[in-house]
Please model this.
Amino acid sequence: MKGYQYNFSELHQDIYFDMESRARKAEKMLRILRDCIGDDLGERHALDVGCSTGAMSRILGEHFGRVTGIDIDAKAVEHANANFASPTLDFRIGDAMDTGLAPDSIDVVICAHVYEHVPDAGRMLQEIHRLLKPGGICYFAAENKFVFREGDYRLPFLSILPKPLAHLYLRLAGRGTHYYETLLTYWQLKRLAARFELIDYTRKVVAEPARFAAEDIIRPGTFKQRAALGMLDHAYWLFPTYLWVLRKPA
Model:
């Protein structure tokens, strides 16, 4: 079983300390969550799994009644506590596969591009299922293994290479020494989420980017949007990123 990468935020400061991009991502999450469960987020407790530096948790904390952020990256959590902690927003070092939180205690889990970073994604989804109240939901954003350019290192075909070649590729590209991430195919992701009711927002967001604050990624009426919709209709298994809401049965 592969291990955690404990200094991820330090290696990817261009992503996790970019407040503007974190705000855009948080707004997309909020639009989807409100569309799915309504506007009463202020009455709910959210858990941000893989909160990193806390930038998105801070924004979520303006809308939820309480937000807890957990991450294995101690320096990132230290930054989050130093800059964003409040009476309704707390951060802790924690293992996404074994949080230590009480069962049936969370209304909404945020799990955005996290599954590939944990040693065992199946155990993480089991833990999310345990934590959610009956009827609670998980916002689950997941990158496809069959993506042309891998999202964290932005290298073509990195995610589909066998691990020894992926490690070598990273070293030759000067991006690191070890490729910790393990991306899954569409079918593997479906099996991962099998215990939940799956509500698919991928096509909705592509079809109505303005409604879901996604115009920075795909603009309405463009060739890119038409091509993306065609892929979703005819080759969904090749789409680069899936936006799912996973509901725990009541």
